[in-house]
């Protein structure tokens, strides 16, 4: 069975049983996991709220952007609203579209994919135009089965899409880049993260969304300057780290919102249409890759299943990060 086929099977059914070696490895790794949890501090306070309006210098009915997911979507690790992913994406959208953007974040620190169920109810009631989801790391650390986690994510994307929202998902980051996690747990965390990210890609695209692989996107930069790229807890990104991650996601979010000027893909070898399972595998291998649904001769599916378009878009610098206007005054209908 090819790697792409194994990923597709894992997304739908899971990875099968755990052998004796796997059980012994898990027992040996429990001590490391406990040590990592003691090394990584618990959240001391909620992240700053990014709810509010951006691009107030522009006229028009604001585009609504909802943020769902875990601490990476909420922006845990920074002190100012302007440094959260929601604020950075909203400021970038306003700059590119020359249009006001209104943000509502329902993300919860510590959330797994199951936590998307109450979050999506809040988001659906608000009726966003675009929804961005960042989730998966806590599913990996809690060893939640991939099909269960991906099922919650895919259903969230499906429901949002059915209500008219364009959905972009930043797939599970590579937990092998986190310093408090030591080998051999670090090696397993890397593989588990990659498996989760590939399965997320398949589930999200099948449900009508698009993905951007985060993977080890920040790994080299974090390794070169951990004091700059990591927050105080050495686990969550700093303001600089979030800026790097959102720069990779922004072109896809702009395209989802209807923009095109700065969202044209970079011509690169290996881009184009292939099976979704193959695209998911390739995206995991190259962080910053966008995967979305495609058609071939008017058909969404081929011999290997769903068609997908794989792209490497130009990363977009966010020129003017800003705090929201009236962050407590978001209108909910």
How would you describe the overall organization of this protein?
With 333 residues, the protein is of the alpha/beta class. The protein has one domain: Rossmann fold (3-Layer(aba) Sandwich), CATH 3.40.50. 42% of the residues lie in helices and 14% in strands. Strands 1, 2, 3, 4, 5, 6, 7, 8, 9 and 10 form a ten-stranded mixed beta sheet that branches. Helix 4 crosses helix 11. It is globular, with a radius of gyration of 19 Å. The C terminus is likely disordered.
The mean pLDDT is 82
The CATH H-level superfamily is SGNH hydrolase
Helix content: 40-55%
Runs with pLDDT <50, length 5+? 13-30, 327-333
CATH class: Alpha Beta
Class inferred from helices and paired strands? alpha/beta
By DSSP, the count of extended strands is: 10
State which percent range the strand residues make up: 5-15%
What coarse outline follows from CA principal-axis ratios? globular
Largest β sheet strand count, sense and barrel closure: 10 strands, mixed
From N to C, what is the helix and strand string?
Answer: HHEEHHEHEHHEHEHHHEHEEE
């Amino acid at each position: 069975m090819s790697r792409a086929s194994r990923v597709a099977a894992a997304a739908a059914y899971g990875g099968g049983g755990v052998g004796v070696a796997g059980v012994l490895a898990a027992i040996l790794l429990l001590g490391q996991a406990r040590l990592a949890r003691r090394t990584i501090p618990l959240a001391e306070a909620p992240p700053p709220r990014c709810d509010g309006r951006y691009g107030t210098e522009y006229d028009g009915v604001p585009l609504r952007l909802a943020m769902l997911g875990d601490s990476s979507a909420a922006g845990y690790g920074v002190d100012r609203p302007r440094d959260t992913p929601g604020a950075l994406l909203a400021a970038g959208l306003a700059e590119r579209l020359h249009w006001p953007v209104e943000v509502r974040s329902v993300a919860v620190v510590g959330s797994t994919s199951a936590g998307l169920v109450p979050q999506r109810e809040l988001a659906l009631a608000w009726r966003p135009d675009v929804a961005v989801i960042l989730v998966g790391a806590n599913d990996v650390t809690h060893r939640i089965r991939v099909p269960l986690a991906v099922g919650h994510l895919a259903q969230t994307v499906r429901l949002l899409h059915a209500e008219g929202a364009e959905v972009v998902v930043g797939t599970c980051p590579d937990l092998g880049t986190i310093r408090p996690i030591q080998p051999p747990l670090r090696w397993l965390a890397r593989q588990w993260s990659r498996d989760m990210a590939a399965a997320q890609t398949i589930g999200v695209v099948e449900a009508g969304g698009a993905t951007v692989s985060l993977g080890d996107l920040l790994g080299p930069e974090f390794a070169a300057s951990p004091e700059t790229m990591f927050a105080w807890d050495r686990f969550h990104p700093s303001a600089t780290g979030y800026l790097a991650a959102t720069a990779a996601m922004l072109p896809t979010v702009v395209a989802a919102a209807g923009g095109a000027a700065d969202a044209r893909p970079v011509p690169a070898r290996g881009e184009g249409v292939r099976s979704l399972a193959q695209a998911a595998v390739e995206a995991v291998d190259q962080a910053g890759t966008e995967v979305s649904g495609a058609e071939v001769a008017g058909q969404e599916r081929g011999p290997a299943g769903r068609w997908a378009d794989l792209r490497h878009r130009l990363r977009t610098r966010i020129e003017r990060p800003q705090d929201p206007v009236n962050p407590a005054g978001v209108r909910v209908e």
